[in-house]
């Protein structure tokens, strides 16, 4: 099952449009190039596709075995570029290469060790990443086969390999395509984006050994330069507060259904309204306590893999399935389902009966 995909980059189009409207001439020019590329990412990649190389590796590999390769585009746009680090090779002299290598490995390990998932497609897909894509490219994206990282412009955005949760966010799009194929528009698209934010921050929390209370619940905290008035691209704890900057504008994410944004932009607000299920997850995880990936994260993963989850699911559909899965998996811990039900209520989502 697969959804309709128009855009799989971490930087939403509305941020790039703000840059074009309010930035300096060099900033506008770089944002325009990135936005044109964003708009060209059309079509439906469907579930992750293995190249001939990836398929050969997967076929001969051991279940759960990590295999990754990092390539260098040398500021061009041909993919994957020149291979610069393969699985097991020592660190390079390029921070972007090593950050990509480590983040691909951390994401793979998180899904395998926590949820028993054998890579993105659950069939041992080898993970590929390309760094130094284009010149001053202000994004990172998943194209259905691999990760691609820009270096940012150094004024607004730093290199995109710096943020582990951004890498895990993009790879999770592949997980979502493999499982639910949530159509990338309106509420199902916002759920698609939210799944990536959820498992992106959980990967970071797992690596940092942080409890739900200790975590910052920020997405892309390492990307913004100190010239930007903001702390991250998004806040799951407090959607709408991540940044308030003369160039980027103010974080527009709503935190509850009372402020749901009706729009045709951003594929019906997929990066906007994802703040609502994001906050529901945060509220549930903190209420449950401990490591967020163990209970709240397990329920969200079970729901993403639930065959009852429609690819056009709305928030109320997803909420109902989280309650079902919480009661099923954690039947001996009723507080888990209770916390999740309360969290959905707090953001104004009524689970569909």
TL;DR of this structure?
Helices cover 42% and strands 8% of the residues.
Question: How does this model look, in words?
Answer:
- The protein is of the alpha/beta class and 353 residues long.
- It is built from eleven helices and nine strands.
- It has helices spanning 13-22, 25-40, 52-60, 95-115, 164-179, 186-208, 266-269, 275-288, 296-304, 315-329, 334-346; strands at 68-72, 82-86, 127-131, 140-142, 147-149, 218-219, 234-235, 244-245, 249-250.
- α1 (13-22) packs antiparallel against α2, α6 (186-208) runs parallel beside α8 and α10 runs antiparallel to α11 (334-346).
Instruction: Categorize the overall geometry.
Output: globular
Q: What is the CATH C level class of the largest domain, in words?
A: Alpha Beta
Task: Tell me the series of helices and strands, N- to C-terminal.
Answer: HHHEEHEEEHHEEEEHHHHH
**Largest sheet data:** 5 strands, mixed
Strand content: 5-15%
CATH architecture annotation name of the largest domain: Roll
Q: What ranges have pLDDT less than 50 throughout 5 or more consecutive residues?
A: 1-7
Radius of gyration: 19 Å
Q: Briefly note the CATH topology name of the largest domain.
A: Elastase, domain 1
- Helical fraction equals 40-55%
Number of distinct helices: 11
Order of strands, main sheet, comes to 2-1-3-5-4
First and last CA, distance: 24 Å
Number of domains: 2
């Amino acid at each position: 099952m697969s959804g309709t995909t128009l855009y799989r980059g971490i930087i939403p189009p509305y941020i790039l449009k703000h840059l074009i409207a309010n930035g300096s001439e060099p900033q506008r020019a770089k944002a325009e190039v990135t936005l044109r590329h964003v708009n060209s990412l059309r079509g439906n990649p469907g579930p992750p596709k293995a190249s001939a190389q990836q398929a050969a590796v997967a076929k001969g590999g051991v279940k759960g075995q990590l295999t990754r390769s990092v390539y260098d585009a040398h500021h061009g746009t041909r993919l994957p570029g020149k291979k610069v680090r393969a699985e097991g090779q020592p660190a390079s002299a390029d921070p972007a290469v090593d950050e990509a290598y480590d983040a691909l490995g951390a994401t793979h390990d998180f899904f395998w060790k926590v949820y028993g998932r054998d890579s993105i497609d659950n069939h041992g897909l080898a993970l590929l990443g390309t760094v130094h894509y284009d010149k001053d490219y202000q994004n990172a994206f998943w194209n259905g086969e691999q990760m691609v990282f820009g270096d940012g412009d150094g004024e607004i955005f730093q290199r995109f390999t710096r943020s582990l949760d951004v890498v895990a966010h993009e790879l999770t799009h592949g997980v979502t395509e493999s499982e639910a194929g949530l159509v990338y528009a309106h509420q199902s698209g916002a759920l698609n984006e939210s799944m990536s934010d959820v498992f992106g921050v959980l990967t970071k929390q797992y690596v940092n050994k942080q409890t739900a209370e200790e975590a910052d619940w920020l997405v892309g905290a390492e990307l913004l330069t100190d010239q930007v008035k903001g702390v991250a691209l998004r806040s799951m704890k407090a959607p709408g507060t991540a940044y308030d900057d003369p160039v980027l504008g103010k974080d527009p994410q709503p935190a509850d259904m009372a402020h749901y944004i009706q729009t045709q932009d951003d594929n019906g607000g997929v990066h906007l309204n994802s703040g609502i299920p994001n906050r529901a997850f945060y509220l549930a995880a903190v209420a449950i306590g401990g490591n967020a990936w163990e209970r709240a994260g397990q329920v969200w993963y079970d729901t993403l893999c639930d065959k009852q989850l429609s690819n056009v699911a709305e928030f109320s559909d997803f909420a109902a399935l989280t309650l079902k899965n919480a009661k099923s998996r954690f039947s001996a811990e009723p507080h888990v389902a209770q916390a999740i039900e309360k969290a959905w209520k707090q953001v104004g989502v009524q689970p569909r009966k």
